[in-house]
Amino acid sequence: MRSRFQSILVAVLLLTLLAGCSTAAPASQDSNKKDGNVGKPPPYEVKLVFYSSPQKDLKLIEEEMSKITLEKINATVKLERIEPAAWDQQTILMLTGPEQVDLIVTGNQSFWRQVAQKQLLPLDELVKKYGQDIMKAFEPEILNAAKVDGILYGVPTIRDFASNVNVYMRKDLLDKYHLDLSTVKALDDLDPYFAAIKKNEPTITPLVKSVAPKPIINRVIDNQWDVLGDSVGVLENLDSLKVVNLYETPEYEKLINTVRRWYEAGYISKDVATSKDAAAELIKAKTAFGSIQKGKPGAHAQIESRVNLKLESVDIGRQITSTTNVTAAMLGIPKNSKDPQRAMMFLNLLYSDAKLMNLISWGIEGKHYVKINDKQIDFPPGIDASNSGYNSRQGWMFGNQLLTYTWSTDSPSLWEDMDKFNRESKKSIALGFNYNPAPVKTELAAITNVVRQYQDGLENGSLDPKVNLPKFNAALHAAGIDKVIAEKQKQLDEWAAKNK
């Protein structure tokens, strides 16, 4: 156990780090000079907080991971799981209280809130000292996307940094009615396919939402503009630094007119705005034909596995990368960490140690999976998704997912394909820009209420754009969207000037 002197020294060094000076020697090294164990840090438990469905064998995963981390950084691992529905509430309480948290899953809105409230530690010096494998794993522009005002506060997980738009449709129905997708190049080309299903399969909805809380065309908007975090002021195009009102662009008007046409033709259900059903469940139940989804390598096989049906898909547009893509899933070190240096050592292992990453991603070999070749795995005999003790499938949430095996239903080259997909994506000119909404928080609160009133109806087709789009924009202007766009433009111009 640490002596009283050692505890005081650790506290002083942590306070120094929180004050912005992280150049001092790590507590774990200094505190061992007294007993001759120079270079070996004292024992520590690193707590990683994340969200997931219940996993019966989570304790076993902790134990197996700890065998690796004890040898490499003299630390054990504590995996703290939170129910997804309770995530926001519990983590807000956790980070505002004194509870020890060494690493936490973060991203986008949660990340910006945590940075603004000074709940996450700056990581630049910690990465330089203890995160060499992290720095090797990233293109600099990707890692820099997690910086706020030039300071790194989170490390993105290595997964899909890019996405495009895919439209998925049931293969059995395409074959039944001899429908060929080769002519589909844009959303407006889809009408004949939906019309055929509407005419011949009256109990099947031609187009449904990809996820319940989001409108039909949510994925299209996220992949047509750089939404600069919150869609309240977007880039005019990916090569321009001009910030505009998304809802006044001709492209947005064209998009909602398309979805309105589909709604009026009966291709979208009349209760779409209030429906809690997602595409996967509806397609699996054979009550839906297709949906617009996020496209990336492996997505097709993963969606087919969820719906238990063969699907065909068509790409609409090329893949893009924006700050929002990169910062969607990250790991941060909260100020509540009692040993930020050790937290960074553990984080570094998640970007370099394949065995550790496979444990947290897939579980224990022989118990939760078996290898079918050098790259792929499957359930052991007698085990499936219904009775496996560890089947979270959330490798994208932790470290470098490209170090892990691929599942039997995925391509053996999935991670090579993902890396190529990321590198060949169209990068936004504002990649790396993080917007601070604090100066216009009053206006944003009013704008949020306006968006809630109109967005779902317009983007699901249930509201007539001719009548409601002008009302929507008038209400946005009254709520202060011009001030918000001006502030975002100011911050973007300042960021661009510093990053020439």
Largest sheet: 5 strands, mixed
* Strand content bin: 5-15%
CA-atom Rg in angstroms = 24 Å
Q: Which structural class should the secondary elements be placed in?
A: alpha/beta
Which whole number gives the mean pLDDT? Answer: 90
Our count of helices gives 21
* Structure summary, number of beta strands: 17
Biggest sheet, strands in spatial order? Answer: 2-1-3-13-6
Shape annotation = globular
Helix content: 40-55%
Query: How far apart are the termini?
Result: 51 Å
Stretches where pLDDT falls below 50 for ≥5 residues?
1-37
Write the SSE topology.
Blueprint (H helix, E strand, L loop, with lengths): L3 H15 L8 H4 L13 E8 L6 H16 L1 E8 L4 H10 L6 E4 L1 H9 L7 H7 L1 H6 L2 H4 L3 E2 L2 E2 L2 E2 L6 E8 H6 L14 H10 L4 E4 L9 H7 L9 E2 L7 E2 L5 H15 L14 H6 L3 E8 L3 H9 L3 E11 L1 H4 L3 E3 L7 H10 L4 H9 L7 E2 L4 E3 L27 E2 L6 H10 L2 E2 L13 H20 L4 H15 L1 H18 L2
Parallel strand pairs: 1-2, 1-3, 8-11, 12-17, 15-16
Antiparallel strand pairs: 3-13, 4-5, 6-13, 7-11, 7-12, 9-10, 14-15
Account of the 3D structure:
The protein is an alpha/beta fold. 42% of the residues lie in helices and 15% in strands. It contains 21 helices and 17 strands. It has helices at residues 4-18, 27-30, 58-73, 87-96, 108-116, 124-130, 132-137, 140-143, 171-176, 191-200, 218-224, 250-264, 279-284, 299-307, 323-326, 340-349, 354-362, 414-423, 441-460, 465-479, 481-498, and strands spanning 44-51, 75-82, 103-106, 147-148, 151-152, 155-156, 163-170, 205-208, 234-235, 243-244, 288-295, 311-321, 330-332, 370-371, 376-378, 406-407, 426-427. The strands form 5 sheets. It has a 5-stranded mixed beta sheet with strand order 2-1-3-13-6. Strands 8-11-7-12-17 form a 5-stranded mixed beta sheet. Strand 9 (234-235) and strand 10 form a beta hairpin. Helix 3 (58-73) packs antiparallel against helix 17 and helix 19 packs antiparallel against helix 20 (465-479). It is globular. It starts with a helix and ends with a helix.
